[in-house]
Amino acid sequence: MTTSSDGFPARIATLQNDLGVQGRRVQSLLEAAFDAAFARDAAGAAQAIAMDDRVDTVDVEIERKSVALLVEATSSGAALSENLLRQVLTIVKVNNELERIADAGVAVGELVQDLSKANVALPETFRVMTNSIIGILRDSYTSLQRNDGHLAKVVLASEDAVEMFKRALAREVQVQVSSGKMSVDTGFLISEIATLCEIIAGHCTNIAEQALYVATGKIVRHMAGKWEEVPTPPR
Q: Is residue 33 within 8 Å of 73, Cβ to Cβ?
């Protein structure tokens, strides 16, 4: 016998709110890690790394609550709509993406100790790139919170800009290393952080894909250098 789905929408809304708080928590970790890198602040990096403990705890809590909700709905025969099911599945997926972004932030923090030994100004392009990553992360989880398909598409389009920044940064580092203004080791560290930025951007686009899916029901794929909507299969 199928029972009412009353109560489940409110629980899903609570999970979505928890996910939004987690997004802001991950953003704070990332900001702290980048700030520590530019300040060559090992203590600040350690504080950023320590923030990951809470991210991991909440990651597990959100997943457990999501699974418990689905199990309860199934065992009680509650008729969850397609939209509600889509929301729960998206919460689980985005929760995982946020945890991986936090891991990348920790990796940035772990590079600060070695970066602090460099006595050269970091390229301005580097700061622009990290600022862009923070904005992309914010827009990705905000697009999900607001059910904003347009903002999700803005995030998807931003991946090309991150790749452009990475190429520009690589050229700038190469010039400074070649001229003796920067050591090879410092150049390597900057390249590592730039690669982590690219990884974070990839996770953000995954979040934006899910946000677009929730908002419109459309599945998008990266094809031929651009994002394309895949037609919804016939019922």
A: no
Q: Report CA-CA distances (Å) from 49 to 14, 19, 31, 102, 184.
A: 27, 20, 11, 9, 26
Q: What are phi and psi of 120, to 5 degrees?
A: -135, 145
Condensed to tens digits (0 to 9), the pLDDT of residues 165-183 reads 999 999 989 998 999 888 8
pTM: 0.88
Domain boundaries, position 215 = 8-230
Alpha-carbon distance 176 to 50, whole Å?
Answer: 33
In 3D space, the residue among 196, 25, 228 whose CA is nearest the CA of residue 126 turns out to be 196
Q: Which CATH number covers residue 140?
A: 1.20.58.220
Calculate mean pLDDT across residues 3-17.
82
Please check whether residue 68 lies inside any domain of the structure.
Answer: yes
